[in-house]
């Protein structure tokens, strides 16, 4: 659970904040993972990309706290054979909820939908 409590308004708004936060994290993690894969395939080390990302505009939770490349950061799921991380099953559940909620109010989430497909 988070370390900070933030009042979100009326009943249900906390759940809305949770699914929006998790959708943003899923999309971010996919982008960071793809960028790392591209960089490595083009010949740059993941540790070098990490240093660059984390002091520039690509810095985000997915790069500086839960880096997706095994061996770059210790004590994160990617370096523990993905043991103990937020499971794909839970992320799928939250993305399903986000997309269904968006649909319920006539809002289209193309990035969230793409993340769910992946």
UniProtKB/TrEMBL annotation:
Pathway: Amino-acid degradation; L-valine degradation. It catalyses: 3-hydroxy-2-methylpropanoate + NAD(+) = 2-methyl-3-oxopropanoate + NADH + H(+). Pfam families: NAD_binding_11 (PF14833). Its EC number is 1.1.1.31. One of its GO terms (molecular function) is NAD binding. GO terms for biological process: L-valine catabolic process. Residues 12-118 form the 3-hydroxyisobutyrate dehydrogenase-like NAD-binding domain. Keywords: Branched-chain amino acid catabolism, NAD, Oxidoreductase. Belongs to the HIBADH-related family. 3-hydroxyisobutyrate dehydrogenase subfamily. This is 3-hydroxyisobutyrate dehydrogenase. It comes from Oryza meridionalis.
């Amino acid at each position: 659970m988070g370390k900070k409590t933030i009042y979100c308004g009326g009943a249900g708004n906390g759940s809305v904040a949770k699914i929006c936060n998790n959708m943003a994290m899923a999309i971010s993690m996919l982008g960071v993972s793809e960028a790392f894969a591209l960089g490595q395939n083009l010949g740059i080390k993941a540790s070098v990309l990490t240093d660059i990302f984390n002091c520039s505009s690509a810095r985000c939770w997915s790069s500086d706290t839960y880096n997706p490349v095994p061996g770059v950061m210790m004590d994160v799921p990617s370096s523990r054979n993905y043991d103990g991380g937020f499971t794909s099953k839970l992320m799928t559940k939250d993305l399903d909820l986000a997309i269904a909620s968006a649909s319920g109010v006539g809002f289209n989430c193309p990035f969230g939908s793409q993340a769910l497909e992946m």
